């Protein structure tokens, strides 16, 4: 298995994702987050927020809302069972609130291998913008691909 | 509700109060699959996980990063978080008991804001770090 480095620089189609209240509640339940500011507008306002904010890593639910889900894996021709998450980084420039529509666009910024091709690393950056086009966050992800050919040796 | 940390009172080496989580359950992984939109079957479908060489399903790395988000928002309000990032250093299995911990590593001023840098970690019951992360929050 060899990943195509020509994909470095490739930009995926931008898409809009809505921060839905029900999804934020389910996300909070999964991570054990019980702060009422993520569920209740009155609690959020009392804490100084103009609306219900989303938890810091809920941005993942927005970037996962891609209608062409799995686009990166398709472009790389990689099976989902072979990937692991290597790193994830968020830069926050402005808050995201429940009800916001966020435009996400992912770009491949690097592809490299380690251990003689046994592991491949795909670095991507996703810009997240509000309706006015202002950058609210940047998500940087490193996906690790296990090379099934190396495992057979 | 947590108040913003006061820049002048924060010292390098200060610890965030650790959080010990209940053991990871399969149910939790199913909830995270739905809540995050990460539908990779490797986290919820045992047959699929075995087919790809794993002994069992395992937690989404991002579920644990959500825990780090909880830790950081126990130290500073949500709207004061400027950065949160992590390396996923080992797999979190069903039944693992994760402890969240954090330490102040630096203080600086940038772009008119007083910033506090933190090292944040998830560590399992064997003392092995599963996530080694960092965060930056704006102080008051």
Question: What would your notes on this structure say?
Answer:
The complex is a heterodimer of chains A (153) and B (140). Chain A is an alpha+beta fold and 153 residues long. Chain A has a single domain (5-152), classed as Roll (Thiol Ester Dehydrase, Chain A). Chain A has helices spanning 21-31, 41-46, 59-63, 71-76, 148-152; strands at residues 15-18, 83-92, 101-114, 119-129, 135-146. Chain A has a five-stranded antiparallel sheet. The longest helix of chain A is centred in the N-terminal third of the chain and has 11 residues, at 21-31. Chain A is elongated. Chain A starts with 14 loop residues before the first strand and ends with a helix. With 140 residues, chain B is an alpha+beta fold. Chain B has one domain: Hotdog Thioesterase (Thiol Ester Dehydrase, Chain A). In chain B, strands 1-3-4-5-2 form a five-stranded antiparallel sheet, covered by helices on one side. In chain B, a hairpin with a 2-residue loop joins β3 (99-110) and β4. The relative contact order of chain B is 0.25. The A-B interface holds A 23, 26-33, 35, 37, 46-49, 53, 55-57, 60-61, 64-65, 69, 79-92, 95, 140, 151 and B 1, 21-22, 28, 31-32, 34-42, 48, 51-53, 60-63, 65-70, 72-73, 77-79, 81-88.
């Amino acid at each position: 298995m060899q990943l195509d480095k020509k994909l470095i620089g490739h930009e995926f189609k931008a898409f809009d994702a809505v921060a839905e209240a029900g999804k934020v509640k389910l996300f909070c339940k999964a991570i054990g987050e019980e702060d009422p500011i993520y569920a209740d507008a009155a609690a959020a306002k009392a804490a100084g927020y103009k609306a219900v904010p989303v938890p810091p890593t809920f941005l993942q639910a927005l970037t996962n809302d891609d209608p062409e889900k799995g686009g990166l894996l398709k472009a790389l021709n990689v099976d989902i069972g072979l990937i692991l998450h290597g790193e994830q980084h968020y830069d926050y420039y402005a808050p995201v609130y429940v009800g916001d529509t966020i435009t996400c666009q992912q770009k491949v910024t690097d592809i490299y291998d380690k251990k003689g091709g046994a592991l491949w690393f795909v670095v991507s950056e996703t810009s997240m913008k509000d309706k006015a086009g202002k950058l609210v966050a940047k998500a940087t992800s490193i996906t690790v691909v296990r090379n099934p050919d190396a495992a057979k040796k | 509700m947590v108040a913003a940390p006061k820049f002048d009172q924060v010292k390098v080496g200060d610890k965030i109060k650790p959080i010990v989580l209940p053991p990871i359950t399969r149910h939790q992984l199913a909830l995270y699959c739905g809540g995050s939109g990460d539908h990779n079957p490797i986290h919820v479908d045992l047959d699929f996980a075995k087919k790809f060489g794993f002994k069992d399903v395992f937690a989404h790395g991002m579920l644990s990063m959500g825990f780090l988000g909880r830790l950081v928002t126990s130290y500073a309000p949500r709207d004061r978080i400027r950065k949160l990032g992590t390396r996923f250093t080992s797999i979190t299995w069903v039944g693992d008991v994760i402890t969240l911990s954090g330490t102040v590593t630096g203080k600086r001023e940038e772009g008119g804001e007083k910033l506090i840098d933190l090292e944040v970690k998830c560590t399992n019951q064997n003392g092995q770090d599963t996530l080694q992360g960092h965060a930056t929050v704006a102080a008051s």
